[in-house]
Amino acid sequence: MTNKNLSELAEKMRDIDICMLSTHTDGGAIAGRPMSNNRDVEYDGTSYYFTLEDTRTVDDIKADPKVALAFQGAKAFLVAVEGKADLVRDKDAFKEHWSADIDKWFADGIDTEGLVLIKVVAERAHYWDGEDEGEVTL
Description:
Helix content is 17%, strand content 44%. It is built from three helices and seven strands. Strands 1, 2, 3, 4, 5, 6 and 7 form a seven-stranded antiparallel beta sheet that branches. The longest helix is centred in the first third of the chain and has 8 residues, at 6-13.
């Protein structure tokens, strides 16, 4: 086991767009769904994902903000992140993290009714890079 630092881990994560965001449901199960980081890939331990207010994802986070993110990159590079989610409803934050690529999902852009930005602050990241593995605590 080796220990990459956060900047080394971030560099390896740069090209990963889709992750699995897992939440705890009201029945105690774990629910996962794919989410795009919208090419907002300057990873510093915080990730951002857009969704709508009336989704199970938002309901789950309101009830329990502890979430997990799973990333898969090239050549057996994987990252499992544990963190806490916050629901952001601020248009300035929307502008900061918006990408034209997601206009197809949210037709009115940052003015889409019910738009929510999920902010996930990592507490721990475990990675596997081929046969190498390690952990970064944030």
